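Reposting from the mailing list since nobody answered there.

I have sequence plus structure tokens for a pair of proteins and want to know whether others read the tokens the same way I do. The first protein:
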Amino acid sequence: MLREGFPKQVATTFSTLCRQSFPALAETSVADNSKPRDNSVTIIGGHFDAHKAVLSWMLACCEGRGMRPFPYIHRRRFWHYSHALESAEMLQIDILCEELCGRMKDIANLQVHTEDVHAVYSSTEKGHPIRSMIAESIGRALLERRLAARLAYKMLRQDPQLKDFDDDVNEAIARLKKDCAESEQGRAARAEHQAVRKAAKKARPTALRTTLEQSPKDDHRRCGSAPRCSHRSCQV
């Protein structure tokens, strides 16, 4: 039991799962109203503390002070935010999922801490999306030559218990290099196309002027038909 006596109105306000479990009377048929109504929601999996934190956040948002940010975490932030995100996804709280995803992306754009790396890779399976975020974070930092505490990450990559981490980082680096190369080729192709269009546009007025400057009389003189031409400018 995560929490007993949780206000149903609060739960249905934030959670799509709860709204589906506790539909409003106006949305139910007469036959359904005659059946015993559920008074609890069951979620399987996740972390107990993360679920409690999400429920506490929901209550805090209903204390008359408006929407509240999810509590900030200072130690192993990426790891704990991933647990909260998992809970929010289970309860189908879209607004909280968006907030937590944004925080995790901000961390990954800089550098995921070694403690978070070890915690995630020690407790998740290969192919988990959180692992992908970590691998790309470290791979990008390596490519951009801004990775702090490089030795600590090197030790993690050499740890036999975290072999997947080294493989994931190598794959992320290869993917980032490929994306960069394709992006550069695309820019070069666009620049070449623009140069061709610019050259063609510049040459078009010159050809037009040459045609306009050439008089009909000159044409007739070359073909010998000027005396028979009805144009006043071509009369000889």
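The second protein, same order (residues first, tokens after):
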Amino acid sequence: MEEEEQQQEQERHRCEKIIAILDKAIKDGPWDKTIFLKASGKNLRELRAGLHAYMEALKGPETAESNAATGTQTRYLTVYISL
């Protein structure tokens, strides 16, 4: 069990490093200059969001346990927007 926790911690650490690199690239890049760069910037932002969601999923069981211990629950609200 301890080995699995170490692997998850290493995975989280790698995710944090990659997210930091993506944040810098997104911030510093000229993503509004051409259509190609706009699409590339969008892909980088989507990749970052997906990686962040993955990292949060790795934290999932710990968060659920701590919420159960404190008596708090996560609530979701579905919002529909008409255009």
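Reply #1 (J.P.):
I read it the same way you do. The chain has a mean pLDDT of 81.
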